[in-house]
Design a protein that fits this description.
This protein has about 575 residues and is α+β, with helices and mostly antiparallel strands. The chain is built from 23 helices and 10 strands. The strands form 3 sheets. The chain has a 5-stranded mixed β-sheet. Strand 8 and strand 9 form a beta hairpin. Helix 2 packs antiparallel against helix 3, helix 18 packs antiparallel against helix 19 and helix 21 runs antiparallel to helix 22.
């Protein structure tokens, strides 16, 4: 509800014709000599135009009405996801293989069964460890159909109104409207990129899936084909056999407190910043910690860490701007940014701190990159500092995706890891195997993102369908096209996919587009040395601090010394390198 009120308030601001006219008039007399001023004016004029200020009063009124309806639907849709409290019950026998610490997190019913919720820390380990294929299948369908009865119709309604709004604003579809202010620019560019990336991953994906199919046949003694709920389970088995990786053993090297402390230490060292814990009495929960960030002794921002699951809390990992920084033009006083990193890591017990999976360490590294991006942004103007809509959406993830690759480096891992019993670092042979294993299945997960990105673009195109049955079929058809497995029991998975209602409509491709630039950027960084402070400061000064004061590709060119390229990303999937 609060988000809807804020979004409605922004609509009222950016549909004010008098304000738009005043900015237009000021743009004619501004000489553009003030730092970031021309960029600010151009950005605000675009904001007002994209909200319909160029229309007559009748047209603008229709845009306002429809946009507020969109906000209302999105708010309801997201609230349904956050409030979802459905469970599925299993006996202890049906959960055979689930580690004791994961089992301990499950509530028990009066008749002794275990309740599984849709929260990832609860349901995720079942897909990885549970030996019972039927249990995994039931969990897959439970997760895939959550919120279907509440959100499927809301989404159909949303597609209609988004299309109508785009047409009022002079665009063929919502996809064309959203992409107009991105690096990609057009639907055709996005679909061509997805097609090329799919082609680049094809050989690696076929090889990996053949290995998993052979492993399933070995375990089951049958020729039953792989199913979606088999992938994580047999990948874990294969990693143990082929790469000698036991995810439960690897966790022991990543106690939560050490990971949090050392990741912050790495960021502060390479970016030449100081991070200090401060009093958190103003936090919204007793588990939420607060920190301040200093540059050359001067305060530049605060951030909160909200790391454990709670009822009704956002169920993924993300960074949220609490207060966006700016400098008061009258007093020249800097109002520093405040951000919050939200995650859902396992909570510590009375006996010991929680232990993190390697993937959770990587996620923490990634999301903390967003925290640093938000804190380092130093434009004078609120609108040009870090938020989800400040930079181009297909650039937003680039810095964090680049720096998350640090976790595969031995020097970095020697800093982060420390066995919870004796503080010894992760052995180098295990890390080498993790690096090799990280490539296994990467083509499959990339195609998972490709199919969702294509679905997102197609349903927001002018030839969309508002039929629930047709949308379910489209989702299943695209999934089968890219993941190469038959969809025997279609689900309404898009009904719990909050990217579609949280600013990523027509933008899910951005994760892949940004990953392409991030791969290019990381190879450049690695060549200079990952702990090289000079390069880290260049990252801060040429990427993080400018934020939205420059186009993303200009910042990348400034950092790399050349235009960015996707070729490193495509080459990553070659079987022969």
């Amino acid at each position: 509800m609060q988000y809807q009120m804020w979004d409605d308030f922004k609509i009222d601001i950016f549909t004010s014709k008098s304000t738009y006219a005043a900015i237009e008039e000021y743009s004619k007399i501004s000489d553009g000599s003030h730092r970031d001023e021309k960029r600010l004016i151009d950005t605000y004029l675009s904001d007002f135009q994209r909200n319909g200020c160029f229309l007559d009063e009748a047209g603008l009124s229709k845009v306002v009405e429809k946009t507020k309806t969109i906000n209302e639907i999105c708010s309801k849709y997201n609230a349904n996801i956050y409030a979802f409290d459905g469970t599925i019950e299993f006996t202890l026998e049906e959960l055979e293989g689930l580690p004791e610490d994961n089992l301990a997190n499950l509530k028990q019913t009066e008749d002794g069964k275990y309740e599984v919720t849709s929260d990832y820390p609860i349901i995720g380990p079942i897909f990885i460890h549970c030996n019972n294929s039927e249990t995994r299948r039931k969990c897959s369908l439970f997760k895939g159909n959550m919120c279907g009865s509440e959100n499927a119709e809301l989404f159909n309604e949303l597609l209609v109104i988004r299309q109508e709004t785009a047409e009022l604003l002079g665009f063929e579809s919502n996809a064309e409207y959203e992409l107009d202010i991105t690096i990609a620019k057009t639907k055709e560019n996005v679909l061509n990129f997805l097609t090329k990336l799919h082609g680049a991953t094809n050989d690696m994906n076929q090889r990996d899936m053949a290995e998993l199919q052979a492993l399933k046949s070995e375990y089951t003694g049958t020729d039953e084909p792989l199913q979606y709920w088999d992938i994580a389970y047999y990948q874990d088995k294969l990693k143990k056999q082929k790469f000698h990786i036991d995810s439960e053993e690897v966790k022991k090297y990543f106690p939560r407190l050490r990971v949090v402390e050392k990741v912050m230490e790495i960021y502060s060292d390479i970016l030449d910043l100081q991070i200090e814990m401060v009093d958190h009495s103003d936090s919204w929960h007793e588990d939420v910690a607060k920190y301040q960030v200093l540059k050359d002794g001067d305060l530049i921002g605060y951030f909160y860490l909200d790391l454990f699951p709670r009822d009704g809390k956002y169920s993924h990992a993300a960074c949220f701007p609490v207060h966006i920084g700016y400098t008061d033009s009258d007093t020249e006083v800097r109002h520093v940014p405040i951000s919050a990193m939200v995650a859902n890591l396992a909570a510590p017990t009375d006996e010991r701190d929680s232990l993190l999976r390697f993937s959770e360490v990587k996620t923490f590294f990634h999301e903390f990159g967003h925290v640093m991006h938000s804190i380092c942004s130093d434009s004078l103007y609120y609108r040009l500092n870090w938020s989800w809509k400040a930079v181009e959406q297909d650039f937003l993830e680039v810095p964090s995706l680049m720096i998350e690759h640090f976790v595969y480096n031995e020097d970095i891992m020697n800093i982060i890891s420390g066995h919870y019993e004796n503080n010894s670092p992760l052995p180098s042979d295990i890390l080498s195997n993790i690096v090799e294993a990280s490539q296994f299945g990467k083509a499959y997960t990339t195609n998972g993102t490709i199919f969702r990105a294509e679905f997102d673009i197609l349903v927001h195109s002018s030839n969309y369908s508002d039929s629930k049955e047709e949308l379910i079929q489209l989702y299943s058809d695209i999934k089968q096209k890219y993941l190469k497995m038959e969809v025997e029991e279609p689900t309404i998975a898009y009904a719990s996919w909050n990217h579609l209602t949280s600013g990523y409509n027509s933008g899910y491709y951005c994760y892949l587009w940004a990953e392409g630039y991030a791969k290019d950027m990381f190879e450049f960084y690695k060549g200079q040395g990952l702990l090289n402070k000079e390069v880290g400061v260049a990252l801060r000064e040429k990427i993080l601090e400018p934020c939205a004061t420059l186009p993303g590709e200009v910042m990348l060119n400034n950092f790399l010394g050349r235009p960015p390229s996707m070729q490193t990303f495509f080459d990553y999937f070659k079987l022969e390198k």
